[in-house]
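Is FNR placement plausible here? Inputs below.
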Amino acid sequence: MPTLRLVPASTSDYRALAEKRLPRNLFDYIDGGSYDEVTLRANVEDLRALSLKQRVMRDVSNIDTGIELFGQKWAMPVGLGPVGSGGMMARRGELQAVRAAEAMGIPFCLSTVAICSMEEVASVATRPFWFQLYMLRDRGHVAEMLDRAKAVGVNTLVFTVDLAVTGERYRDVRNGVAGGTSRLGRLRGGLVEYMLHPAWAYDVGLNGKPHTFGNLVKYVPKATSPNDFRGWASRQIDSSVTWKDIEWLRSIWPGNLLIKGVLSPEDAIAAADTGANAVVVSNHGGRQLDGVSSTIAMLPRVVDAVGARVAVLMDGGIRSGLDVAKVIASGAKAALMGRPWIWAIGARGEAGLSKLLQTFRGELRVAMALTGTRSIAEITPEIVERRM
Ligand code: FNR
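Reply from A.M.:
I modeled the complex. Tokens:
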């Protein structure tokens, strides 16, 4: 049981506050991984097991955490990765998140299965945001979504490739959220939990509607809750997709293309061969195949294989700016976070996320100063020592 702190300092403090505020089924949905959660833990623990190398007396009075990537300036090499159902954790959660990302000067990626639609996000965004795509069987819907994305100014598409089938998340089964659970289970997971969490129930349950997957409403018109979409999504997500389909995607998507969910050098080479601009080393935050390697363990091998051809990004287990320094030192151009941002908006909304992002940048600055690096380009493998 994590300690509950009213003045949150670290990612784990936001996690504890989110656990208190959110109904159990929602907290477990964001917090959990698949099966025994071995990979979920490995992502975090393997990053912890990397040591930073302390260096001193190097004039670190000017530290620049900024980068430029995909034609965009980032205040630090960290973006908010795609997270489905974000708007169930805070009122119109994706709007709060895009505003916090913009205030910090970092990219925000909207999930296919976000609560807020790309049009709604565009109505508050002042800069281009990213859109994440799952391949649907109906290619007409896919082409239309990409047209909509272009129309609202999205210039970077993140195509997720590690969800050919869905890994079972046992916490969702226990909470009655996953398919095939009893009515009693659903009642316990839904209504009772909502009553036990009145602040969330008022803010989001009552006033945060509609609770639909905004990007998909057009294609599933009768759906009124995330549950209504789940069955549809499990039928629509196309498990027959291969690298060949990316040729088609490339032909209709002129912007930046990132392939997310690559965990082996071989797949990274195949991804680079499609003409993608980047690969994201990811195991979906330990939510898909449990028992696969942590992302930080695989990152250097992927960088060796394709780092000279495409940008390599990584997500999974990143919980602080110190972790970001380790990820950059292991060869990534940038890191994405999933759970940290969603815990922060679940705990304290946009203000909480803004504060967490400042914390990440402060931690990164300290990591850079005390490893003797002044710019992101100076962060090299020299500053970490691998103990795994
Ligand atoms: C995700 N992730 C994800 N990825 C994606 O491409 N599309 C999506 O809709 C989602 N949805 C989603 C929901 C929740 C609740 C989580 C926690 C994650 C995966 C996500 O983008 C990212 O790969 C991981 O979250 C990274 O690991 P950490 O930062 O959560 O440890």
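Short version: The radius of gyration is 20 Å.
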